Amino acid sequence: MSNKTKFSGINSPNHRISLAKLSTKRKSNPHMLFTNRRLANTNLRKQMEEQKNQRLNFQKLYRKYKAIFEFSGDPIVISEIKSVGPHGRTIIEVNEAAIKHFGYSRSELLLHDTAFLHPDEEVDIVLPWVGQELTRKHHVFFEAKHKRKDGSIVDVEIHATMIAIDDSPISLAVIRDISDRKNFEKKSQDLHLAEQNLRQELENQIQQRTEFYKALVHELKTPLTPIVLNSEVLEDNLEGESKKLANNINIASLELLTRINELYDMAKGEVGILKITRSWIYLDELVNELFGLFSSSLNHKQLNLRIFFSPDLPLIYADPYRLKQVLINLLNNSITFSPPKGQIVLICTARDSEIVMDVIDEGIGISDDDLQKLFKPYVLTKSDGLGLGLSLSKKIVELHNGEIKAESTLGWGSKFSVILPVCSPD
Fold first, then answer.
1. Of 99, 224, 322, 368, which residue is least crowded by CB atoms under 10 Å?
2. Which of 14-18, 234-238, 295-299, 305-309 shows the lowest mean pLDDT across its residues?
3. Among 265, 291, 302, which residue's Cα sits nearest to residue 388?
4. β-pairing, 403-409 with 343-351?
5. Nearest alpha-carbon partner for 363 in 404, 410, 294
6. How confident is the model at residue 229, as a pLDDT?
């Protein structure tokens, strides 16, 4: 077979026949050719429209984020991260809030490393740590100080995030001025320190006063004790007018001893060392024990003491000694300020989960001015002298988680109410 016969290239008879057929086919179908061109043009226009929309959307998105960046109330600094060292972050963009915050122009800030915005003491300590944390965690939140162009130092809170764009890491730092908060914290600390100093000074003064009262009580009791004992001996061995005088001495010395004890108890109450020892007690038995203590005073002024108990009176968990102290004080006041041949009433009732003890008299009454300061210690009133008895009674009642109240009309008598909870040892 010859070489001419083997060759089947573009000039071969068979290929010429195929081209001739294709040419004839295209010439014979011009509509298909037009349709293909039209379809190609449509696809091209569609691609160009999509690209245009993408560009518009990108521009809108850019303007949106640019506006957020520029109009943010917090300063924002974008830096290129070159290393983790203190000078390893170069500023490449700032917003208007950052320009106002630092006091520099945009051109003065750009292409400088962030170290010049910090005080010298932070550059070698804080900034290397920030660079390490950004590299390790990609975000860091910390407090620092910024140095403004005018030289002023401002406390700031910085939240920095590392972002990789085109394989080039950048830092996006959002800054918040916390100077007002720091100033408030400083003032709060100063006030707290001043309060602690005042508290310590007050505690020292209270302690000194307590020690003074303790020494005073000792000095007063030392000569008073033999007076009480000797007056009792004289009363037992004398007759007639002399016996009466001895009895007066004894009563007056016991009253003085009571006042001294009240003064010391009051001092203990002020420093929180006045204690109560509770037990279950029958209130009617405790009150009846008191009746004998006042028989002499009641007879002397021809007073009538009437006592009433509600039939459903429960046991009460209280300190019997301290509760007697309160009732003795209230009854003593009623006897002192009641006119001769008057009446005093003590009513003990149960109300819900409380015990109420009312002491009612027909005495001279208490003025509105004295009522306002009646339970305050060391305040002189016409109704209670220095007020030690009532103020001490108030402390004792409060130690029982109770309440003491006074009602009075000047010239018509008074009513004192002691309200105690019926509580269990738990």
1. 368
2. 14-18
3. 265
4. unpaired
5. 410
6. 86
SS3 assignment, position 21: helix
| Side chain identity at residue 376, one-letter code | K
Q: Measuring CA to CA, how many Å separate 245 from each of 220, 235, 236, 251, 361?
A: 22, 8, 12, 10, 30
Instruction: Please name every residue paired with 318 in a beta bridge, in sequence order, or none if there are none.
Output: 279
273: helix, coil or strand?
coil
- Per DSSP bridges, beta strands 304-309 and 316-318 are unpaired
* DSSP state letter for 339: P
User: CA angle, 255 as apex, 224 and 343 as ends, to 5°?
Assistant: 170
| Residue 67 scores a pLDDT above 90 | no
pLDDT in tens, 269-294: 777 778 889 999 999 899 888 877 78
One-letter amino acid identity for 418?
Answer: V
**Could you give the CA distance from residue 356 to residue 10 in angstroms, rounded to a whole number?**
127
Phi-psi category of residue 237: left, alpha or beta, with phi > 0 → left and psi -120 to 50 → alpha: alpha
CA 245 to chain centre: 62
The most confident of the ranges 19-33, 42-56, 205-219, 335-349 is 335-349
User: What pLDDT digit, counting tens, does each position of 368-380 carry?
Assistant: 888 888 888 766 5
Distance CA 139, CA 161 (A): 4
> pLDDT-based confidence at 360, cuts 50/70/90?
very high
